[in-house]
Design brief:
By secondary structure, the protein is an alpha/beta fold. It folds into two domains: 120 residues, Rossmann fold; 177 residues, Dihydrodipicolinate Reductase, domain 2 (2-Layer Sandwich). Helices cover 34% and strands 29% of the residues. It is built from nine helices and 15 strands. A nine-stranded mixed sheet has the order 14-13-12-11-7-10-9-8-15. The longest helix has 20 residues. The radius of gyration is 20 Å and the shape is globular. The protein starts with a strand and ends with a strand. The mean pLDDT is 98.
Length: 333
């Protein structure tokens, strides 16, 4: 079975600790090269991960004719610039979330995709995990009646001023984790929001948002309410509620790759779980599933399920939430 040859731009922790090891265990991904602006760092990562080639610049990796697809885990403000360069070099690109700093910046990728004839997508791995696929199926088939409300909480505690998540222009909770609440609600409802309102609390030292709370309104009275925080204790939970029950996803975003996951479906018979049942999913790695899904599209074996237009739609919601927090009003999308 032919595998797609991948190159990785940068040695970010998300790449070296999670994504690369997962893709190396996948069916269709061959991580053939890694690059850093520091050749020593690239070589150290390549040696530690068993990657064949290391480059001391991103340009050198993009010039490698053997590389078919690029994974871009660079800081958020570098997502679009280096994705554009990768597309221009004839590479397919899977870029980390958020795809850009705003929707206007992200729209450049449509024209670049058309010029290059290559695929480009945003790396929201959660949509590949079977627990999310099953939750969407249950909602679509009416297992909990008409689903009208999603409540999401996602937090971690990070106080390092040198961490990229705490540095403008691309840091902060809305960009880093609030985007998951938005994308999964769009995924579950199968629709685009009509308006949104948000409140942000910014860290005086970092200048980034450390707590965002928001309401995102979808057609037909459906709503997402969420909070995302970068300076609270680690916690995450998603509850999807309909008029005939609810679905709870216990570890919705950082689903462990080394143990089964589960969702709970409760028909609401009582408040003590009398009508609850669990569905368990076998061990899997959502990053490996994501890599294989993109590779299948590269190989022409399957269509790309979430093209760049989907990423731009997600950025429009994030843009509206930032505007709402600034002006103190509902923002129409």
């Amino acid at each position: 079975m032919r595998k797609v040859k991948w190159g990785v731009l940068g040695v970010a922790n998300i790449a070296t600790e999670k994504v690369i090891p997962a893709m190396q265990m996948s069916e269709l991904c061959d991580i053939a090269a890694i690059a850093s602006r520091d050749l020593a760092k690239a070589r150290a990562s390549a040696e530690g991960l068993g990657i064949e080639r290391a480059y001391g610049s991103y340009e050198d990796l993009l010039a490698d004719p053997a590389i078919e697809a690029v994974y871009n885990p660079l800081p958020n403000e570098l997502h679009v610039p280096w994705t554009l360069r990768a597309l221009a070099a004839g590479k397919h690109v899977l870029c980390e979330k958020p795809i850009a700093l705003d929707a206007n910046e992200a729209r450049q990728l449509i024209e670049a995709r058309e010029r290059s004839g290559r695929l480009v997508a945003e790396a929201f791995m959660v949509r590949c995990h079977p627990q999310w696929r099953r939750a969407r199926e249950l909602v679509q088939t009416g297992a909990i009646g008409a689903a009208s409300a999603i409540q999401t909480f996602f937090s971690y505690r990070l106080l390092d001023p040198d961490n990229v998540r705490n540095r403008p222009p691309g840091g902060g909770g809305l960009y880093d984790i609030g985007c998951y609440a938005v994308v999964t609600a769009r995924f579950i409802f199968g629709a685009e929001p009509s308006r949104a309102v948000a409140s942000l609390d910014r860290d005086a030292q970092f200048g980034t948002d450390r707590l965002v709370s928001a309401i995102v309104e979808f057609p037909n009275g459906r709503r997402l309410t969420f909070s995302a925080a970068t300076q609270l204790s680690a916690h995450q939970r998603v509850t999807i509620v309909g008029d005939g029950g609810r679905i709870e996803i216990a570890i919705p975003f950082n689903a462990p790759p080394d143990r089964p996951t589960r969702i709970t479906i409760d028909d609401g018979a009582d408040l003590f779980g009398g009508g609850a049942r669990d569905e368990e999913f076998p061990v899997c790695d959502q990053y490996a599933l994501q890599g294989d899904a993109f590779s299948r599209a590269v190989l022409g074996q399957a269509p790309l399920e979430f093209p760049i237009e989907d990423a731009i739609a997600n950025m429009r919601v994030i843009d509206a939430l930032f505007r709402s927090a600034e002006f103190g009003s509902w923002e129409t999308l």
